C-alpha cells in the first residue's frame, strides 16, 4: 500500500516508516502539525521539531506542514495513497480528509480505548492513579478516537516516578508489535471492533485550576496531580502551592514518610520532597 504518515516528531515518523516498510508498504509523504489547533499559533519549539524531522527525511520524501484544517483533503488526495497512518496529531481530521485516501486512516492511541479518548490519555491515567496504560490502533472517524479497533494491548506500567523517555520507549515497542496486525487488517477492509460508548471517557486538556494545589484535596489526588504535572513538563515543573510559608512549584511528593516537608491534606499527611521557587520559569 501507498501510505501517508502523520506524526509529532522525527522519532514518531521513524517508527511508523520502519514498521510500514518492514510490512511491505511504501510511505509516500509525511504530515506534521505545527500548532495545537488548526489555524492556531505555531507552538513553542515547533521550528526545532520540524528541523529534526527534515534532517531525518528519507530521500525524496515530502514533508507537509499545513496551517489550516481545510487544506488537508487536497494535500492528502494529491498522493493517491491507499491509507494514512497517524501517531500523534492534535487536530480532529475532517471527514473529507479521511476520504482522501482509498481506505481511510488509522490512528495509534496511547490508551485502552474507549477509555481516555482525546489528546492527553497518559496524563489523565497518571492523574487518576492508574497502574498501567495500553496502546490501541483504530480507524479514524468523525469524532476523536471513536473508530473501530484493529489491534490493542495493555501492560505498560506507570511507575510512581513516571518519566516520559522510558515510558515512550515501552509505548513504541507496543506500536511495533501492534501496527503490522492493524495494517494487515486494514488492507483486508476490516472495520475493526466497535467501541463501547457506555465505557468511553475523554482525556482533554487540563483545566487551569490543575496548575494549583489545594491542600484540602485528598492526599492521593494531590500526589497524582504532582506526578501528572511532572510527566507533562518532562520533570521540569510542577503545580504551584504554599509550602512552609513559601510559594513553590511542587516537583515531587511521597505518600509515605520521607525527607521533606509534611503537609496536611484533606484526609491525611503528604510529604513534599522536591520543589522549585514558583517565580522560576521551567527549564531555567
Structural write-up:
With 284 residues, this protein is of the alpha/beta class. The chain has 2 domains: 198 residues, Formyl transferase, N-terminal domain (Rossmann fold); 70 residues, Formyl transferase, C-terminal domain (Methionyl-tRNA Fmet Formyltransferase, Chain A, domain 2, Roll), CATH 3.10.25. The chain has 7 helices and 11 strands. The strands form 2 sheets. It has a 7-stranded mixed beta sheet. A 4-stranded antiparallel beta sheet has the order 8-9-11-10. Helix 1 runs parallel beside helix 6 and helix 5 packs antiparallel against helix 7. The longest helix has 25 residues. 35% of the residues are buried. The model has no long low-confidence stretch (mean pLDDT 94).
How many helices? The count is 7
Give the C-alpha Rg.
21 Å
**Approximate helicity band:** 25-40%
Task: Classify the fold: give the CATH topology of the largest domain.
Answer: Rossmann fold
**Terminal Cα span:** 47 Å
Mean of residue pLDDT values? 94
* CATH homology-level superfamily of the largest domain: Formyl transferase, N-terminal domain
**Adjacency order of strands in the biggest sheet:** 3-2-1-4-5-6-7
Q: Judging from the principal axes of the Cα atoms, what is the shape?
A: elongated
Please indicate the percent range of residues in DSSP E strands (runs of 2 or more).
15-25%
Overall structural domain count = 2
Q: Please name the CATH architecture of the largest domain.
A: 3-Layer(aba) Sandwich
Give the helix/strand class.
alpha/beta
Order of helices and strands: EHEHEHEHEHEEHHEEEE
Count of β-strands: 11
CATH C-level name of the largest domain: Alpha Beta
Unreliable spans are none
Oligomer: single chain
Major β-sheet profile: 7 strands, mixed
Amino acid at each position: 500500500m501507498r501510505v501517508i504518515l502523520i506524526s509529532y516528531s522525527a522519532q514518531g515518523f521513524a517508527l511508523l516508516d520502519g514498521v510500514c516498510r518492514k510490512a511491505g508498504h511504501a510511505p509516500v509523504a509525511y504530515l506534521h502539525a505545527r500548532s495545537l489547533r488548526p489555524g492556531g499559533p505555531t507552538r513553542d519549539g515547533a521550528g526545532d521539531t520540524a528541523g529534526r524531522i527534515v534532517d531525518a527525511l528519507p530521500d525524496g520524501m515530502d514533508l507537509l506542514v499545513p496551517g489550516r484544517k481545510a487544506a488537508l483533503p487536497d494535500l492528502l488526495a494529491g498522493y493517491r495513497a491507499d491509507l494514512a497512518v497517524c501517531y500523534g496529531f492534535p487536530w480532529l481530521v475532517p471527514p473529507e480528509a479521511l476520504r482522501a485516501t482509498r481506505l481511510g486512516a488509522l490512528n495509534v492511541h496511547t490508551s485502552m480505548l474507549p477509555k481516555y479518548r482525546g489528546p492527553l490519555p497518559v496524563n489523565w491515567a497518571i492523574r487518576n492513579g492508574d497502574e498501567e496504560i495500553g496502546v490501541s490502533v483504530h480507524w479514524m472517524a468523525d469524532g476523536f478516537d471513536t473508530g473501530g479497533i484493529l489491534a490493542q494491548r495493555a501492560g505498560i506500567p506507570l511507575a510512581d516516578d513516571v518519566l516520559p523517555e522510558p515510558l515512550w520507549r515501552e509505548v513504541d515497542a507496543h506500536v511495533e508489535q501492534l501496527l503490522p496486525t492493524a495494517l494487515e487488517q486494514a488492507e483486508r477492509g476490516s472495520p475493526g471492533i466497535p467501541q463501547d460508548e457506555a465505557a468511553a471517557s475523554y482525556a482533554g486538556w487540563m483545566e487551569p485550576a490543575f496548575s494549583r494545589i489545594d491542600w484540602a484535596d485528598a492526599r492521593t489526588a494531590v500526589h497524582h496531580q504532582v506526578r501528572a504535572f511532572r510527566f507533562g513538563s518532562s520533570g521540569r515543573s510542577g503545580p504551584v502551592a504554599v509550602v512552609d510559608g513559601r510559594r513553590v512549584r511542587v516537583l515531587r511528593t511521597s505518600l509515605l514518610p520521607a525527607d521533606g516537608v509534611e503537609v496536611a491534606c484533606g484526609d491525611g499527611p503528604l510529604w513534599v520532597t522536591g520543589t522549585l521557587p514558583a517565580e522560576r520559569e521551567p527549564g531555567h
